[in-house]
Amino acid sequence: MMHLVRFRKVFTAAVGSVVAAGLLGFALPTPPASAAAQPPEPYAADLPNLSTPRVAFDLTANQPAKGVAARGTDGALLYSARSGSGFAPFQSLGGVIVGDPSAVVTPNGTELFVRGTDNRVYTNTVTPSGGVTGYSVLTGLTVTGEIEPIVPRDEPVGSVRLFARGPDGAVWTNVRRNGAWTGWSSLGGTITSDITAGLQLLTVGGNTRIFVRGTDNRVYANRVGPNGASGYQVLGDLRVTSNLTVERDSPFSAQRTLFARGEDNRVYAFSLSIGGATWQPLPAVTATSDIGASTQSLYVRTSDNTIQTSRQTDGSGTYSPFERVEGQVIGNPTAFTLQPNGGPLTQYLLARQPNGALAFNIRPFNGIPTGPFAGYNPISGPAVD
């Protein structure tokens, strides 16, 4: 079962040195060519070992999705900014990274976080003007999983909090406050999944909550703030076989629902806003991926390598039967919602196609779908891994 450990103020080294001032001079330690082409090992054999594109959100904006980050087939970090109703071509930021990148938006621009081939955490920023700062390393921890950043609401403007799985299997965190990283500290536990972070409306006691799978395959939550953490609390008895998903795209409401795949390969939902909630099975579908979620809708790949989508039909957590989105995909789906002032919601679905291109698919949505998805449009530039 999950090893419960209260927050420990065990600080190690603070922020590391700048690796390069610009893109041209940068190189992470380069692994053998075969290693660069392989995905990272999963935490457990039952988790989907698929790549996941990561959308950079600015939750202070009316239309929060600012761009998408991915790993290229050469191992480099790729970034594509939102442009009109689509995306600009992917630009390569270089380096050789392990696993999927992650991204947040702050006044500094789009801040990207990756795991290098030396298993340290690196950061790179695309500035509001489109410049690239180059990579810097955060010393003090080697990681064994993806880096999960979040912009907390209970820290000074411009702050970023990071979470990562350490070599001991525990969750570690680091926060940049007033321009300086405080250093890595352990939240304890032993986790067997990626770390998923979301925001709560209330800031008393910390408004960032993380979700992880424990060694018993059940889901645990931990609330984290400037003064420490609540400790891990189990969420129901469901044993899950995927990484965990919360919607990230709403600037007006905090996390509401947690999604996961169960041992029967069915999708389950857990309400985070209702006391005494339990895991509820969604309409039957056989999931073969992690789950993508946006405001009122969720997405999952199925055994025919297409995406199936379901939407929330009322405030009680009832979901519509899954429906098929035409087109083959080979990775985990990612989704977000545009929310124009006074207009309908617009659903965006992103997934990797068999030829390696990351593609987006658009569907008008106004409480109910106003038409089908229009079809996948590849983002030009380098292919993603």
Short description:
By secondary structure, the protein is mostly beta strands.
Number of domains: 1
Give the CATH topology: Methylamine Dehydrogenase, Chain H
Classify the oligomer: single chain
**Percent range for helical residues?**
under 10%
Query: How many helix segments?
Result: 1
Q: How would the global form be characterised?
A: globular
Pfam family, one: DUF8189
Domain PLL-like beta propeller: 68-269
Signal peptide: 1-35
Protein name: PLL-like beta propeller domain-containing protein
Explain what you see:
This protein is mainly beta and 385 residues long. It has one helix at 33-36; strands spanning 54-57, 65-71, 77-83, 86-87, 91-92, 97-106, 109-116, 121-126, 136-138, 148-150, 160-165, 171-177, 180-181, 185-188, 196-199, 208-213, 219-225, 228-229, 233-234, 245-246, 257-261, 267-271, 280-281, 287-294, 297-302, 307-311, 323-325, 334-338, 345-352, 358-366, 368-369, 377-378. It has a single domain (33-378), classed as Methylamine Dehydrogenase, Chain H (7 Propeller). The chain is built from one helix and 32 strands. It is globular, with a radius of gyration of 19 Å. Helices cover 1% and strands 40% of the residues. The two termini are 34 Å apart. Strands 1, 2, 3, 4 and 5 form a five-stranded antiparallel sheet that branches. Strands 10, 11, 12, 13 and 14 form a five-stranded antiparallel sheet that branches.
